[in-house]
Amino acid sequence: MTIRYEINPPKITDPPSRIELLDERIEQISKFCDGIHVTDSVLGIERISPLIIGSEIKQKFPELEVTISLRVIDKTIPQIVDFADAAVHANLDGILILMGDPSPENDYKSGVIPSAAVSSLVQNGFNEKINLYLSLPSKPNFDKISKKVNSSPKGFVTQVIHDVSQVKRLSDYLHPKNFQLIPCVLFPSSKNSRSAEFLNLDWSNYESDFSSFVLEIESITGDVLVTSPNDFKGALDFLTRLQN
Q1: pLDDT in tens, 118-165
Q2: Apex CA 42: angle with CA 37 and CA 43, to 5°?
Q3: Domain containing 155 — which CATH number?
Q4: How far is it, in rounded angstroms, from Cα 192 to Cα 13?
Q5: Are 112 and 77 contacting, i.e. CB atoms less than 8 angstroms apart?
Q6: Choosing a second label site near 93 at 20 to 30 A (CA), which of 3, 19, 122, 156?
Q7: CA 81 to chain centre
């Protein structure tokens, strides 16, 4: 069983107390999960680099599987290679490569797409040093993801999953091709309801028994990423119960 927890780095404009709070939360959650995924600022808002946060987590908790996101919309291939090299030297376990949105302060776009970034890293041998992941919608059109599949990542992290049937469909397609699949699930709580609305997520089929939902998905893929952007305490309580 691999249960990962997703964290969002503080904004670069946040006070030091936000970093201290993040450190406290990582200390707490690390006891009840197998891995931590550190997001990048997909919406373009300047945040502390996931490379910095991920490196600190790996130093403090070397037994945890630590993965980080990298948005490529404003990065060149040499910058992406440098980022991957730094992640390898920090002993991180994986990089999720995403397109992301441009920064509100800078609308520069490099023209690099995630599948091309992965292909370049594979050509440079990084796939032998660190796991490379791409994202997938919860209900992808398989005919339209050939570039992602052909770029030869280690596997795929889904956008937020609505029900188990989505996981089964993805697993049936990806596992025969030897890809790892990490479904992302949103912890159902009132504090996360705005996130659910933004994602058009209907969690009514698992809201009353999130544990069974997560465990059923884990039985299919062996891996689950739990996200709870606005309810850390609720997610911590859930993971505590799940591991006991």
Answers
A1: 999 999 999 999 999 999 999 999 999 999 999 999 999 999 999 999
A2: 140
A3: 3.20.20.220
A4: 24
A5: yes
A6: 19
A7: 19
